[in-house]
Amino acid sequence: MASPADRKQAQREAFRADDPAAGPLTTDQGVAVDHTDDSLAAGERGPTLMEDFHFREKLTRFDHERIPERVVHARGAGAYGYFEPYESCAEFTRAAFLQDPSVRTPVFVRFSTVQGPKGSADTVRDVRGFATKFYTSEGNYDLVGNNFPVFFIQDGIKFPDFVHAVKPEPHNDIPTGASAHDTLWDFVSLQPETLHAIMWLMSDRAIPRSYRMMQGFGVHTFRFVNAEGRGTFVKFHWKPRLGVHSLVWDEAQECQGRDPDFNRRDLWDAIEAGEYPEWELGVQLVPEEDEFAFDFDLLDPTKIIPEEQVPVRPIGRMVLDRNPENFFAETEQVAFHTANVVPGIDFTNDPLLQARNFSYLDTQLIRLGGPNFSQLPVNRPVAPVRNNQRDGYHQSAIHSGTNYFPNSLGGGCPAHAGAGAGAYTHYAERVDGHKIRRRSPSFQDHYSQPAMFWNSMADWEKQHIVEAFRFELGKVGAMTVRARTVEHLARVDGELAAQVARGVGVPPPAGAETPGKQVSPALSLESLRGDGSIRTRQIAVLVTDGVDAEQITSVRERLAAEGAIVEALAPADGTITGSDGETYAVDRALPTVASVLYDAVLLPGGPVGTPPTAADPDAVRFVRDAFRHGKPVGALGSGVGVLSALEPEGLHLSTEFQRVVTDQGVVTDTSPGPASAEFLDAFVAAIAAHRHWGRPPVRR
Ligand code: HDE
């Protein structure tokens, strides 16, 4: 009998296709096929015959291989894993999967970008989806979140407008995987409720280093309901164990070409290597009686509850430990739905959430071709399913017996769940109102929280936000749209607006009233560095013949012991000969990779006085890019000489020799021989910091 944690995996086994090696090739009807390379034809050079049923079946099946991609979040990557609570949450919710720390609930998570099609690049500036399906003992619960805690609009009726505006423009289908175009910014400039999410979009949160290193948020205020029927408002947060880390924009753009699969490859490789990504689930809890205790509306999805006001309480952890076996069957066919809830979790009247509760089921019906998509292996609950729903496209079960309720002929089955049998009961919220089409006045403040976000940023984060606005608006053709957007920014922060205005050629807006100076330090990436480890960081060591072998070995051993992944990059694949005359394997040829695919670079020394990589333009470019993107750079022995290439970039090398010098994440030691413990400690600390922002900003 499978343990509860394996119940989903055990269920999947039953759906595994027969091993094709176990018998001959057949048609879909099971008829053996002796030849699949030539069509049946009337003579060697004659026309293909209609009666070639194998040919027609093979081509037809191929022609029908595609299903429509998701209208948003088309590109994604997924993985299986488990969730376990730290302690019982019974005080707030009766949800069975949040009661017992010894019970692991299987999960499937799909991460995604939003704007681009299925084949677009990973490292675009965009929101990332973070959707989790919990296969609980009480049925499936889907927490369909994003890596931003706020959304662009307040009411779901505007979703088609927003998505039309951000998607490629209708006449030429441009741009792919990008928001820097007229229609999005036209919409933004006319719809200031977008501003808070737009601030996040212009920040480094929109270019995560890894899916494993980003937060997730449920966005809406949901409701926990306990066994007594008492409700508590709840906001969900996923916090990554490895900390939150981002790319820089210049790097993200180059990465789109160097490795369009950068984020999905990273997730896949980490899981294959046993480096299972992990998040802590946290909740912000607000008692029902405090519904109106905030200066914003809890039902407004463009607002956060600052963590300083209501702390995030950790309630459990999620680990992803298994890659899917078939992308289409699992990651593509997984169907999330915000209305997939279990007893103890309920909705609020957030008008965005209400709309989602309609849209997700509707979208699966068209995308997956009918109502039976919950029978697909990835969507199938591990809880038993019994009802009178029948037939429809792709029904794969053979039901017997009665199909209506009430019945006596079927023994009255399936019967209603009796009291105490764990049935879902909706929270008995009192609702009373006139039918109106009007936004609540409590939803009208569109500037205070964008200002709080801006005020909470470190200087380098502000700098990146300004550059992002300049990039995006700089690609907008309509100057009126640029100017109108900047006018809104002036109501967020005067300095922000002035700096953006200068970059995009519109008049600096006259002083506008800005909201106070509220700050939430938890919003800055500075406060989200994680556990300080360097696990799974990718470190490039640039090597060539004559390289100081002792140095490489000492660095490799230490970094590997810390859980980092070290790769030796040489001008060509194969092996190199070290200074000790031994041969060493090369992991990759430099021309096939680039600095943007690594987190840090190390330059070991070579024969005395000959910087081994100095002559190789690929190596020089590699180090220069790493430096410009704020990455840690280590250099040992004569390898330090290569760093002179960075002087035009603003690096001023210390003239002190024979000792370890650390400056802005550049760690050098000109001593020959193996790397000293002091050097290694400093290099590891520089890698743990991820990026070093005191360096001159990236200029093309
Ligand atoms: Fe979605 N969204 N959304 N969304 N969304 C979809 O469902 C929709 C919203 C999110 O990996 C679609 O299966 C409406 C907020 C994720 O499969 C669709 C509204 C948040 C995913 C849909 C929103 C999200 C989707 C497209 C406004 C964060 C990918 C295909 C009322 C809290 C799930 C599909 C996956 C996908 C509709 C707003 C997150 C069309 C109408 C807010 C992570 O149903």
From TrEMBL:
- One MF term from GO for this chain? catalase activity
The UniProt transmembrane annotation reads: none
- Does the UniProt entry include the keyword Signal? no
PROSITE patterns linked: CATALASE_1, CATALASE_2, CATALASE_3
Q: Which SUPFAM superfamilies match?
A: Class I glutamine amidotransferase-like (SSF52317), Heme-dependent catalase-like (SSF56634)
Q: Which family does it belong to?
A: Belongs to the catalase family. HPII subfamily.
Question: What's this protein's function?
Answer: Decomposes hydrogen peroxide into water and oxygen; serves to protect cells from the toxic effects of hydrogen peroxide.
Under which name does UniProt file this protein?
Answer: Catalase
